[in-house]
User: Which sequence fits this backbone?
Protein backbone atom coordinates (compact mmCIF):
# COMPACT_ATOMS: atom_id res chain seq x y z
CA UNK A 1 0.00 0.00 0.00
CA UNK A 2 1.55 3.34 -0.98
CA UNK A 3 0.31 4.98 2.20
CA UNK A 4 3.21 7.37 2.36
CA UNK A 5 2.40 8.68 -1.10
CA UNK A 6 -1.24 9.44 -0.44
CA UNK A 7 -1.44 10.98 3.01
CA UNK A 8 -4.93 10.61 4.40
CA UNK A 9 -6.70 13.73 5.64
CA UNK A 10 -6.98 14.21 9.38
CA UNK A 11 -10.76 13.85 9.40
CA UNK A 12 -12.68 10.89 8.02
CA UNK A 13 -13.64 11.35 4.35
CA UNK A 14 -16.84 13.35 3.97
CA UNK A 15 -17.52 11.82 0.60
CA UNK A 16 -17.83 8.03 0.64
CA UNK A 17 -15.91 6.10 -2.02
CA UNK A 18 -18.02 6.32 -5.22
CA UNK A 19 -18.69 3.74 -7.89
CA UNK A 20 -17.28 4.97 -11.21
CA UNK A 21 -18.30 3.78 -14.63
CA UNK A 22 -17.50 5.13 -18.08
CA UNK A 23 -20.26 7.19 -19.71
CA UNK A 24 -19.11 6.51 -23.24
CA UNK A 25 -15.51 7.41 -24.07
CA UNK A 26 -15.53 11.04 -22.96
CA UNK A 27 -17.29 11.14 -19.60
CA UNK A 28 -17.20 9.32 -16.26
CA UNK A 29 -20.23 8.71 -14.07
CA UNK A 30 -19.61 8.71 -10.33
CA UNK A 31 -22.44 7.30 -8.21
CA UNK A 32 -23.20 6.30 -4.64
CA UNK A 33 -25.72 3.46 -4.94
CA UNK A 34 -25.05 2.39 -1.33
CA UNK A 35 -26.41 5.68 0.04
CA UNK A 36 -30.04 6.34 0.87
CA UNK A 37 -32.06 9.53 0.79
CA UNK A 38 -31.49 12.19 1.97
CA UNK A 39 -27.77 11.61 2.58
CA UNK A 40 -26.96 11.00 -1.07
CA UNK A 41 -28.13 14.53 -1.94
CA UNK A 42 -25.55 16.08 0.38
CA UNK A 43 -22.81 13.79 -0.94
CA UNK A 44 -23.52 14.65 -4.60
CA UNK A 45 -23.42 18.35 -3.76
CA UNK A 46 -20.21 17.96 -1.76
CA UNK A 47 -18.61 15.99 -4.60
CA UNK A 48 -19.66 18.64 -7.11
CA UNK A 49 -18.19 21.40 -4.95
CA UNK A 50 -15.01 19.42 -4.40
CA UNK A 51 -14.38 18.86 -8.12
CA UNK A 52 -15.26 22.49 -8.91
CA UNK A 53 -12.68 23.87 -6.49
CA UNK A 54 -9.19 23.17 -7.68
CA UNK A 55 -10.65 21.95 -10.91
CA UNK A 56 -8.69 19.29 -12.77
CA UNK A 57 -7.45 20.73 -16.09
CA UNK A 58 -8.78 17.71 -18.02
CA UNK A 59 -12.35 18.26 -16.78
CA UNK A 60 -14.64 19.94 -19.30
CA UNK A 61 -17.91 19.88 -17.39
CA UNK A 62 -19.62 18.56 -14.26
CA UNK A 63 -23.26 17.44 -14.26
CA UNK A 64 -24.88 16.47 -10.96
CA UNK A 65 -27.76 13.98 -11.22
CA UNK A 66 -30.09 12.56 -8.60
CA UNK A 67 -27.45 10.35 -7.01
CA UNK A 68 -24.68 10.72 -9.59
CA UNK A 69 -22.07 13.17 -10.79
CA UNK A 70 -21.07 13.06 -14.47
CA UNK A 71 -17.63 14.36 -15.37
CA UNK A 72 -17.05 15.30 -19.01
CA UNK A 73 -13.48 15.29 -20.31
CA UNK A 74 -11.50 15.05 -23.52
CA UNK A 75 -10.05 11.55 -23.93
CA UNK A 76 -7.46 13.02 -26.32
CA UNK A 77 -5.98 14.92 -23.37
CA UNK A 78 -6.27 12.37 -20.58
CA UNK A 79 -6.92 8.65 -20.26
CA UNK A 80 -10.15 7.80 -18.43
CA UNK A 81 -8.45 5.57 -15.85
CA UNK A 82 -5.77 8.12 -14.97
CA UNK A 83 -8.42 10.83 -14.62
CA UNK A 84 -10.65 8.56 -12.52
CA UNK A 85 -7.83 7.93 -10.04
CA UNK A 86 -6.98 11.59 -9.81
CA UNK A 87 -10.61 12.58 -9.20
CA UNK A 88 -11.04 9.82 -6.58
CA UNK A 89 -8.09 11.25 -4.73
CA UNK A 90 -9.55 14.73 -4.97
CA UNK A 91 -12.90 13.48 -3.59
CA UNK A 92 -11.14 11.67 -0.72
CA UNK A 93 -9.42 14.88 0.24
CA UNK A 94 -12.57 16.99 0.08
CA UNK A 95 -12.53 19.29 3.08
CA UNK A 96 -15.35 19.13 5.55
CA UNK A 97 -17.68 21.96 4.64
CA UNK A 98 -19.69 23.85 7.16
CA UNK A 99 -23.34 23.26 6.47
CA UNK A 100 -25.02 26.57 5.84
CA UNK A 101 -28.76 27.08 5.92
CA UNK A 102 -30.21 26.54 2.43
CA UNK A 103 -31.43 29.49 0.44
CA UNK A 104 -35.19 29.66 0.58
CA UNK A 105 -36.97 31.09 -2.44
CA UNK A 106 -40.62 31.93 -2.77
CA UNK A 107 -42.11 31.36 -6.21
CA UNK A 108 -45.30 33.29 -6.95
CA UNK A 109 -47.70 30.89 -8.64
CA UNK A 110 -51.06 31.48 -10.26
CA UNK A 111 -53.48 28.61 -9.61
CA UNK A 112 -56.14 30.19 -11.87
CA UNK A 113 -57.98 27.56 -13.96
CA UNK A 114 -56.41 28.83 -17.20
CA UNK A 115 -52.95 28.21 -15.71
CA UNK A 116 -53.53 25.18 -13.49
CA UNK A 117 -54.76 23.11 -16.43
CA UNK A 118 -54.72 19.73 -14.69
CA UNK A 119 -55.53 20.79 -11.13
CA UNK A 120 -59.19 19.59 -11.18
CA UNK A 121 -58.06 16.18 -12.45
CA UNK A 122 -55.24 16.03 -9.92
CA UNK A 123 -57.64 16.98 -7.12
CA UNK A 124 -59.97 14.17 -8.12
CA UNK A 125 -57.15 11.59 -8.20
CA UNK A 126 -55.93 12.74 -4.78
CA UNK A 127 -59.39 12.84 -3.24
CA UNK A 128 -59.06 16.53 -2.46
CA UNK A 129 -60.83 19.71 -3.47
CA UNK A 130 -59.02 22.15 -5.74
CA UNK A 131 -58.61 24.61 -2.88
CA UNK A 132 -57.40 21.75 -0.67
CA UNK A 133 -54.76 20.95 -3.32
CA UNK A 134 -53.63 24.58 -3.46
CA UNK A 135 -53.42 24.72 0.34
CA UNK A 136 -51.33 21.54 0.44
CA UNK A 137 -49.02 22.65 -2.38
CA UNK A 138 -48.40 26.10 -0.90
CA UNK A 139 -47.79 24.59 2.56
CA UNK A 140 -45.05 22.29 1.24
CA UNK A 141 -41.36 23.05 1.37
CA UNK A 142 -39.76 21.74 -1.80
CA UNK A 143 -36.10 21.12 -2.34
CA UNK A 144 -34.19 21.52 -5.61
CA UNK A 145 -32.54 18.15 -6.22
CA UNK A 146 -31.08 18.85 -9.64
CA UNK A 147 -31.39 21.03 -12.72
CA UNK A 148 -31.99 19.01 -15.86
CA UNK A 149 -34.34 18.19 -18.75
CA UNK A 150 -34.15 21.78 -20.04
CA UNK A 151 -32.06 24.86 -19.15
CA UNK A 152 -33.09 25.87 -15.63
CA UNK A 153 -35.67 23.08 -15.07
CA UNK A 154 -35.62 22.18 -11.34
CA UNK A 155 -36.51 18.71 -10.15
CA UNK A 156 -38.16 19.35 -6.77
CA UNK A 157 -38.49 16.81 -3.97
CA UNK A 158 -40.85 17.28 -1.05
CA UNK A 159 -44.14 16.74 -2.86
CA UNK A 160 -46.75 15.48 -0.36
CA UNK A 161 -47.48 11.74 -0.65
CA UNK A 162 -51.07 12.40 -1.74
CA UNK A 163 -49.79 13.98 -4.97
CA UNK A 164 -47.65 11.04 -6.10
CA UNK A 165 -49.28 10.36 -9.46
CA UNK A 166 -47.92 8.71 -12.61
CA UNK A 167 -47.35 10.93 -15.65
CA UNK A 168 -50.21 11.79 -17.94
CA UNK A 169 -51.16 8.93 -20.26
CA UNK A 170 -50.66 11.25 -23.25
CA UNK A 171 -47.93 13.87 -22.97
CA UNK A 172 -48.80 17.40 -24.09
CA UNK A 173 -47.09 18.66 -27.22
CA UNK A 174 -46.66 22.03 -25.55
CA UNK A 175 -46.50 22.80 -21.86
CA UNK A 176 -46.49 26.61 -21.45
CA UNK A 177 -43.38 28.30 -20.02
CA UNK A 178 -43.58 28.79 -16.27
CA UNK A 179 -45.87 25.80 -15.72
CA UNK A 180 -45.55 24.22 -12.29
CA UNK A 181 -46.10 20.51 -12.77
CA UNK A 182 -46.03 17.24 -10.85
CA UNK A 183 -45.43 13.58 -11.73
CA UNK A 184 -43.78 10.50 -10.31
CA UNK A 185 -43.52 11.92 -6.80
CA UNK A 186 -41.73 15.07 -7.95
CA UNK A 187 -42.56 18.63 -8.81
CA UNK A 188 -40.90 20.72 -11.51
CA UNK A 189 -41.21 24.09 -13.22
CA UNK A 190 -40.95 24.37 -17.02
CA UNK A 191 -38.64 27.34 -17.77
CA UNK A 192 -39.59 27.29 -21.45
CA UNK A 193 -42.48 25.98 -23.49
CA UNK A 194 -41.78 22.35 -24.30
CA UNK A 195 -43.49 19.00 -24.72
CA UNK A 196 -44.14 17.33 -21.39
CA UNK A 197 -46.05 14.58 -19.65
CA UNK A 198 -46.41 16.08 -16.17
CA UNK A 199 -49.66 17.34 -14.62
CA UNK A 200 -49.83 21.15 -14.74
CA UNK A 201 -50.98 22.56 -11.39
CA UNK A 202 -50.07 26.25 -11.72
CA UNK A 203 -47.94 28.83 -13.46
CA UNK A 204 -45.27 31.33 -12.46
CA UNK A 205 -44.14 34.38 -14.38
CA UNK A 206 -40.63 34.24 -12.91
CA UNK A 207 -37.87 33.60 -15.45
CA UNK A 208 -36.23 30.40 -14.24
CA UNK A 209 -33.51 30.70 -16.83
CA UNK A 210 -32.05 33.64 -18.71
CA UNK A 211 -28.76 33.13 -20.57
CA UNK A 212 -28.06 36.90 -20.33
CA UNK A 213 -28.41 36.97 -16.54
CA UNK A 214 -25.71 36.16 -13.97
CA UNK A 215 -26.24 33.51 -12.84
CA UNK A 216 -28.54 32.33 -15.64
CA UNK A 217 -30.29 29.80 -13.37
CA UNK A 218 -32.72 31.11 -10.76
CA UNK A 219 -32.41 27.94 -8.68
CA UNK A 220 -29.60 25.58 -7.75
CA UNK A 221 -29.47 22.17 -6.09
CA UNK A 222 -29.99 22.43 -2.33
CA UNK A 223 -32.30 25.46 -2.53
CA UNK A 224 -35.62 25.32 -0.69
CA UNK A 225 -38.63 26.45 -2.66
CA UNK A 226 -42.07 27.47 -1.49
CA UNK A 227 -44.97 28.18 -3.81
CA UNK A 228 -46.86 31.34 -3.04
CA UNK A 229 -50.40 31.80 -4.21
CA UNK A 230 -50.79 34.65 -6.64
CA UNK A 231 -53.44 35.23 -9.22
CA UNK A 232 -51.53 36.85 -12.04
CA UNK A 233 -52.77 40.33 -12.75
CA UNK A 234 -54.46 40.46 -16.13
CA UNK A 235 -54.50 36.68 -16.34
CA UNK A 236 -52.23 36.64 -19.34
CA UNK A 237 -48.97 34.74 -19.06
CA UNK B 1 -13.13 45.21 -37.04
CA UNK B 2 -14.46 44.25 -40.41
CA UNK B 3 -18.16 43.45 -40.73
CA UNK B 4 -18.28 41.72 -44.05
CA UNK B 5 -21.76 40.44 -44.63
CA UNK B 6 -23.60 37.45 -45.98
CA UNK B 7 -27.23 37.81 -46.95
CA UNK B 8 -29.68 34.92 -47.07
CA UNK B 9 -31.68 35.25 -50.29
CA UNK B 10 -33.60 31.97 -49.90
CA UNK B 11 -33.64 30.02 -46.66
CA UNK B 12 -32.81 26.34 -46.49
CA UNK B 13 -34.76 23.78 -44.49
CA UNK B 14 -32.94 24.37 -41.21
CA UNK B 15 -29.76 26.41 -41.20
CA UNK B 16 -28.35 27.48 -37.84
CA UNK B 17 -25.20 29.10 -36.49
CA UNK B 18 -23.12 26.53 -34.58
CA UNK B 19 -19.70 26.30 -33.00
CA UNK B 20 -18.26 23.65 -30.69
CA UNK B 21 -20.90 24.25 -28.04
CA UNK B 22 -21.13 24.72 -24.28
CA UNK B 23 -19.32 21.89 -22.54
CA UNK B 24 -19.47 23.52 -19.12
CA UNK B 25 -23.16 24.36 -18.69
CA UNK B 26 -24.60 20.89 -18.10
CA UNK B 27 -25.19 21.61 -14.41
CA UNK B 28 -27.73 24.25 -15.50
CA UNK B 29 -29.56 21.83 -17.76
CA UNK B 30 -28.00 23.38 -20.87
CA UNK B 31 -27.11 20.96 -23.71
CA UNK B 32 -23.56 20.79 -25.07
CA UNK B 33 -24.90 21.63 -28.54
CA UNK B 34 -22.70 22.78 -31.40
CA UNK B 35 -22.19 21.32 -34.88
CA UNK B 36 -23.41 17.74 -35.03
CA UNK B 37 -20.69 16.76 -37.50
CA UNK B 38 -17.72 17.91 -35.44
CA UNK B 39 -15.18 16.51 -37.87
CA UNK B 40 -16.56 18.52 -40.80
CA UNK B 41 -16.87 21.55 -38.51
CA UNK B 42 -13.21 21.42 -37.51
CA UNK B 43 -12.01 20.63 -41.02
CA UNK B 44 -14.03 23.43 -42.65
CA UNK B 45 -12.67 25.95 -40.15
CA UNK B 46 -9.09 24.82 -40.63
CA UNK B 47 -9.47 24.99 -44.41
CA UNK B 48 -10.29 28.71 -44.20
CA UNK B 49 -7.67 29.49 -41.56
CA UNK B 50 -10.09 29.79 -38.63
CA UNK B 51 -9.62 28.38 -35.14
CA UNK B 52 -11.46 25.04 -34.97
CA UNK B 53 -13.97 26.52 -32.55
CA UNK B 54 -15.12 29.35 -34.86
CA UNK B 55 -18.84 29.59 -35.61
CA UNK B 56 -20.12 28.17 -38.91
CA UNK B 57 -23.46 27.60 -40.58
CA UNK B 58 -24.92 24.11 -40.28
CA UNK B 59 -27.25 23.36 -43.18
CA UNK B 60 -29.67 20.47 -42.93
CA UNK B 61 -30.97 18.46 -45.93
CA UNK B 62 -31.61 21.53 -48.07
CA UNK B 63 -29.32 24.52 -48.24
CA UNK B 64 -29.82 28.24 -48.66
CA UNK B 65 -29.01 30.76 -51.37
CA UNK B 66 -26.46 33.11 -49.86
CA UNK B 67 -25.20 36.34 -51.36
CA UNK B 68 -21.71 37.51 -50.42
CA UNK B 69 -21.64 41.28 -49.97
CA UNK B 70 -17.86 41.22 -49.75
CA UNK B 71 -14.98 39.01 -50.86
CA UNK B 72 -14.71 35.89 -48.73
CA UNK B 73 -12.95 32.58 -48.37
CA UNK B 74 -15.25 29.68 -47.60
CA UNK B 75 -15.15 25.91 -47.20
CA UNK B 76 -18.14 23.58 -47.43
CA UNK B 77 -17.75 20.19 -45.75
CA UNK B 78 -20.04 17.31 -44.88
CA UNK B 79 -23.26 16.52 -46.75
CA UNK B 80 -23.30 17.01 -50.51
CA UNK B 81 -25.76 19.85 -51.19
CA UNK B 82 -24.58 20.30 -54.79
CA UNK B 83 -23.33 23.84 -54.20
CA UNK B 84 -23.22 26.21 -57.16
CA UNK B 85 -21.74 29.66 -57.57
CA UNK B 86 -23.52 32.36 -59.53
CA UNK B 87 -21.09 35.14 -60.32
CA UNK B 88 -23.46 36.81 -62.74
CA UNK B 89 -27.20 36.25 -63.06
CA UNK B 90 -27.82 32.91 -64.78
CA UNK B 91 -24.14 32.02 -64.91
CA UNK B 92 -23.77 28.98 -62.63
CA UNK B 93 -20.76 26.80 -62.00
CA UNK B 94 -20.36 24.09 -59.44
CA UNK B 95 -18.54 25.07 -56.27
CA UNK B 96 -15.78 22.77 -55.05
CA UNK B 97 -16.25 21.26 -51.58
CA UNK B 98 -13.94 20.06 -48.81
CA UNK B 99 -11.42 22.73 -49.81
CA UNK B 100 -11.03 26.50 -49.44
CA UNK B 101 -12.75 28.56 -52.14
CA UNK B 102 -12.36 32.26 -52.83
CA UNK B 103 -15.70 33.98 -53.36
CA UNK B 104 -15.85 37.29 -55.12
CA UNK B 105 -18.08 40.02 -53.78
CA UNK B 106 -21.56 39.89 -55.29
CA UNK B 107 -21.45 36.14 -55.88
CA UNK B 108 -24.46 34.04 -54.88
CA UNK B 109 -23.82 30.60 -53.42
CA UNK B 110 -26.73 28.29 -54.18
CA UNK B 111 -27.04 25.21 -52.01
CA UNK B 112 -29.62 22.63 -52.98
CA UNK B 113 -31.06 19.37 -51.71
CA UNK B 114 -28.65 16.95 -50.10
CA UNK B 115 -27.87 14.17 -52.55
CA UNK B 116 -25.84 12.38 -49.87
CA UNK B 117 -25.52 12.95 -46.15
CA UNK B 118 -27.73 15.16 -44.00
CA UNK B 119 -25.71 18.14 -42.69
CA UNK B 120 -23.25 20.43 -44.41
CA UNK B 121 -20.98 22.89 -42.67
CA UNK B 122 -20.26 26.25 -44.30
CA UNK B 123 -17.24 27.96 -42.77
CA UNK B 124 -16.24 31.50 -43.70
CA UNK B 125 -12.77 32.89 -43.00
CA UNK B 126 -13.18 35.05 -39.90
CA UNK B 127 -16.08 33.00 -38.56
CA UNK B 128 -19.76 33.89 -38.34
CA UNK B 129 -20.12 36.80 -35.91
CA UNK B 130 -23.03 36.51 -33.54
CA UNK B 131 -22.97 37.38 -29.83
CA UNK B 132 -21.66 34.72 -27.47
CA UNK B 133 -24.09 33.41 -24.87
CA UNK B 134 -22.69 31.27 -22.07
CA UNK B 135 -19.40 31.08 -23.91
CA UNK B 136 -20.71 29.89 -27.25
CA UNK B 137 -22.28 31.10 -30.50
CA UNK B 138 -24.32 27.93 -30.96
CA UNK B 139 -28.05 28.15 -31.60
CA UNK B 140 -30.20 26.30 -29.10
CA UNK B 141 -33.37 25.96 -31.17
CA UNK B 142 -35.51 24.31 -28.51
CA UNK B 143 -34.81 27.12 -26.04
CA UNK B 144 -34.86 29.90 -28.62
CA UNK B 145 -31.54 31.55 -27.76
CA UNK B 146 -27.95 31.55 -28.96
CA UNK B 147 -26.69 31.82 -32.53
CA UNK B 148 -28.69 34.15 -34.78
CA UNK B 149 -31.58 35.25 -32.54
CA UNK B 150 -32.04 31.71 -31.27
CA UNK B 151 -33.60 30.58 -34.54
CA UNK B 152 -32.94 29.08 -37.93
CA UNK B 153 -32.00 31.49 -40.71
CA UNK B 154 -34.73 33.07 -42.82
CA UNK B 155 -34.68 34.89 -46.16
CA UNK B 156 -33.44 38.46 -45.71
CA UNK B 157 -31.18 37.70 -42.73
CA UNK B 158 -27.78 39.39 -42.86
CA UNK B 159 -24.86 37.83 -41.02
CA UNK B 160 -21.59 39.49 -40.11
CA UNK B 161 -18.25 37.80 -40.55
CA UNK B 162 -15.34 38.35 -38.19
CA UNK B 163 -11.85 39.48 -39.05
CA UNK B 164 -10.06 36.60 -40.79
CA UNK B 165 -7.08 35.37 -38.79
CA UNK B 166 -5.35 34.39 -41.99
CA UNK B 167 -6.39 36.56 -44.92
CA UNK B 168 -7.04 34.89 -48.24
CA UNK B 169 -3.87 33.94 -50.02
CA UNK B 170 -1.75 34.82 -46.99
CA UNK B 171 -0.37 32.57 -44.28
CA UNK B 172 -0.01 29.67 -46.66
CA UNK B 173 -3.68 28.98 -47.22
CA UNK B 174 -3.70 27.67 -50.77
CA UNK B 175 -6.72 29.51 -52.02
CA UNK B 176 -7.15 29.70 -55.75
CA UNK B 177 -8.83 32.70 -57.29
CA UNK B 178 -11.19 32.82 -60.26
CA UNK B 179 -10.97 29.90 -62.63
CA UNK B 180 -8.28 28.10 -60.74
CA UNK B 181 -10.31 26.42 -58.01
CA UNK B 182 -8.44 23.85 -55.97
CA UNK B 183 -8.50 20.42 -57.57
CA UNK B 184 -8.24 18.73 -54.23
CA UNK B 185 -10.52 18.14 -51.30
CA UNK B 186 -10.10 16.49 -47.94
CA UNK B 187 -12.77 13.98 -46.98
CA UNK B 188 -11.98 12.07 -43.82
CA UNK B 189 -15.34 10.40 -43.37
CA UNK B 190 -17.22 8.86 -46.29
CA UNK B 191 -20.89 9.90 -46.34
CA UNK B 192 -23.40 7.14 -45.60
CA UNK B 193 -24.39 5.15 -48.70
CA UNK B 194 -27.00 2.51 -49.41
CA UNK B 195 -25.51 0.02 -46.96
CA UNK B 196 -26.51 0.49 -43.30
CA UNK B 197 -24.03 2.76 -41.53
CA UNK B 198 -21.91 1.01 -38.92
CA UNK B 199 -21.91 2.83 -35.61
CA UNK B 200 -19.61 1.49 -32.90
CA UNK B 201 -20.70 1.73 -29.28
CA UNK B 202 -19.39 0.94 -25.82
CA UNK B 203 -21.70 -0.78 -23.34
CA UNK B 204 -23.67 1.42 -20.97
CA UNK B 205 -24.81 0.83 -17.38
CA UNK B 206 -27.85 -1.24 -18.35
CA UNK B 207 -26.41 -3.21 -21.28
CA UNK B 208 -25.92 -6.25 -19.05
CA UNK B 209 -29.57 -6.17 -18.07
CA UNK B 210 -30.85 -6.75 -21.61
CA UNK B 211 -32.46 -10.15 -22.09
CA UNK B 212 -30.35 -12.60 -24.13
CA UNK B 213 -32.67 -12.19 -27.09
CA UNK B 214 -32.56 -8.43 -26.91
CA UNK B 215 -28.78 -8.39 -26.71
CA UNK B 216 -28.56 -10.52 -29.85
CA UNK B 217 -31.05 -8.26 -31.62
CA UNK B 218 -29.12 -5.14 -30.60
CA UNK B 219 -25.93 -6.54 -32.10
CA UNK B 220 -27.43 -8.18 -35.18
CA UNK B 221 -30.48 -6.07 -35.90
CA UNK B 222 -30.92 -3.19 -38.29
CA UNK B 223 -32.21 0.14 -37.07
CA UNK B 224 -33.78 2.93 -39.06
CA UNK B 225 -33.98 6.65 -38.28
CA UNK B 226 -37.58 7.69 -37.78
CA UNK B 227 -38.77 11.06 -39.15
CA UNK B 228 -39.01 12.57 -35.63
CA UNK B 229 -35.20 12.54 -35.41
CA UNK B 230 -33.55 15.91 -34.83
CA UNK B 231 -30.54 17.61 -33.25
CA UNK B 232 -31.66 16.47 -29.80
CA UNK B 233 -31.84 12.81 -30.65
CA UNK B 234 -32.60 10.13 -33.21
CA UNK B 235 -35.58 7.87 -32.67
CA UNK B 236 -34.65 4.47 -34.04
CA UNK B 237 -37.07 1.92 -35.44
CA UNK B 238 -35.87 -1.62 -34.92
CA UNK B 239 -36.29 -4.74 -32.87
CA UNK B 240 -38.09 -4.11 -29.56
CA UNK B 241 -35.50 -4.49 -26.79
CA UNK B 242 -36.27 -5.57 -23.25
CA UNK B 243 -34.48 -5.48 -19.95
CA UNK B 244 -34.57 -8.61 -17.81
CA UNK B 245 -34.89 -6.57 -14.62
CA UNK B 246 -37.73 -4.28 -13.64
CA UNK B 247 -35.72 -1.17 -14.51
CA UNK B 248 -37.43 -0.76 -17.86
CA UNK B 249 -39.11 2.59 -17.85
CA UNK B 250 -37.80 5.50 -15.87
CA UNK B 251 -34.92 5.88 -13.43
CA UNK B 252 -33.78 8.81 -11.35
CA UNK B 253 -32.14 11.33 -13.69
CA UNK B 254 -28.43 10.82 -14.26
CA UNK B 255 -25.87 12.20 -16.67
CA UNK B 256 -26.03 11.30 -20.35
CA UNK B 257 -23.86 12.42 -23.28
CA UNK B 258 -24.32 12.91 -27.01
CA UNK B 259 -24.06 9.34 -28.31
CA UNK B 260 -25.92 7.73 -25.41
CA UNK B 261 -28.32 4.98 -26.51
CA UNK B 262 -31.34 5.20 -24.22
CA UNK B 263 -34.10 2.62 -23.96
CA UNK B 264 -37.52 4.12 -23.20
CA UNK B 265 -40.40 1.90 -22.08
CA UNK B 266 -41.54 1.19 -25.65
CA UNK B 267 -38.31 -0.76 -26.26
CA UNK B 268 -37.24 1.42 -29.22
CA UNK B 269 -33.75 2.90 -28.93
CA UNK B 270 -33.13 6.63 -28.73
CA UNK B 271 -29.70 7.88 -29.85
CA UNK B 272 -28.94 11.19 -28.16
CA UNK B 273 -27.29 13.90 -30.27
CA UNK B 274 -25.57 17.21 -29.45
CA UNK B 275 -28.69 19.14 -28.33
CA UNK B 276 -29.74 16.44 -25.83
CA UNK B 277 -30.44 17.36 -22.21
CA UNK B 278 -27.39 16.73 -20.00
CA UNK B 279 -29.37 14.32 -17.80
CA UNK B 280 -31.81 11.58 -18.67
CA UNK B 281 -33.99 9.09 -16.88
CA UNK B 282 -34.08 6.13 -19.26
CA UNK B 283 -31.82 3.06 -19.03
CA UNK B 284 -28.48 3.59 -20.80
CA UNK B 285 -27.82 0.63 -23.07
CA UNK B 286 -24.65 2.03 -24.60
CA UNK B 287 -22.87 5.06 -26.01
CA UNK B 288 -21.93 5.53 -29.67
CA UNK B 289 -18.21 6.28 -29.65
CA UNK B 290 -16.94 9.81 -30.24
CA UNK B 291 -15.19 8.79 -33.46
CA UNK B 292 -18.53 7.74 -35.01
CA UNK B 293 -20.70 10.70 -33.98
CA UNK B 294 -19.78 12.67 -37.11
CA UNK B 295 -20.93 9.76 -39.25
CA UNK B 296 -24.14 9.58 -37.20
CA UNK B 297 -24.65 13.32 -37.90
CA UNK B 298 -24.84 12.52 -41.62
CA UNK B 299 -27.69 9.99 -41.29
CA UNK B 300 -31.09 11.18 -42.39
CA UNK B 301 -34.59 9.98 -41.60
CA UNK B 302 -35.10 6.63 -43.31
CA UNK B 303 -31.39 5.73 -43.30
CA UNK B 304 -30.46 2.50 -41.58
CA UNK B 305 -27.64 1.58 -39.26
CA UNK B 306 -26.11 -1.32 -37.41
CA UNK B 307 -24.54 -1.20 -33.99
CA UNK B 308 -21.19 -2.83 -33.29
CA UNK B 309 -19.91 -3.23 -29.74
CA UNK B 310 -16.31 -2.21 -28.98
CA UNK B 311 -14.30 -1.76 -25.80
CA UNK B 312 -13.49 1.64 -24.33
CA UNK B 313 -9.85 1.10 -25.35
CA UNK B 314 -10.92 0.50 -28.96
CA UNK B 315 -13.13 3.59 -28.81
CA UNK B 316 -10.22 5.71 -27.68
CA UNK B 317 -7.91 4.26 -30.33
CA UNK B 318 -10.50 5.05 -33.01
CA UNK B 319 -10.80 8.62 -31.72
CA UNK B 320 -7.02 9.09 -31.67
CA UNK B 321 -6.73 7.64 -35.17
CA UNK B 322 -9.37 10.03 -36.48
CA UNK B 323 -7.43 12.89 -34.90
CA UNK B 324 -4.19 11.72 -36.54
CA UNK B 325 -5.92 11.47 -39.93
CA UNK B 326 -7.24 15.02 -39.61
CA UNK B 327 -3.82 16.37 -38.70
CA UNK B 328 -2.08 14.41 -41.45
CA UNK B 329 -4.55 15.60 -44.09
CA UNK B 330 -4.10 19.21 -43.01
CA UNK B 331 -0.33 18.88 -43.15
CA UNK B 332 -0.56 17.42 -46.65
CA UNK B 333 -2.73 20.34 -47.69
CA UNK B 334 -0.09 22.70 -46.38
CA UNK B 335 -2.26 23.94 -43.49
Assistant:
Amino acid sequence: MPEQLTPEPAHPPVIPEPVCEPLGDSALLFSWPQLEEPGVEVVVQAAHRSLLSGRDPAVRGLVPGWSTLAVHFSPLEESPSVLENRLRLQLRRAPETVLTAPRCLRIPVSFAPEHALDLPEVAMSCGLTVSGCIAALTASVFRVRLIGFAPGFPYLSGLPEAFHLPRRATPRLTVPAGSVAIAGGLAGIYPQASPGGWHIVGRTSLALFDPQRTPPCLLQPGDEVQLERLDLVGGVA
Amino acid sequence: MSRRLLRVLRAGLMTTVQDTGRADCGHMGVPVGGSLDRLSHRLANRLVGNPETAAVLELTLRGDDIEFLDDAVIAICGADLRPQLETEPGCLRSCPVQCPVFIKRGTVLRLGLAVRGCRAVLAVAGGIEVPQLLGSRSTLLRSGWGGFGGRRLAAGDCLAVGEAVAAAGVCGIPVAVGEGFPRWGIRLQPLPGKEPARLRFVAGTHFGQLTCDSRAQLLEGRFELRPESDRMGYRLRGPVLELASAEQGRLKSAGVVPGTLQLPADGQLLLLMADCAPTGGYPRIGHVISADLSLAAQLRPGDSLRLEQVTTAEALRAFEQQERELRAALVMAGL
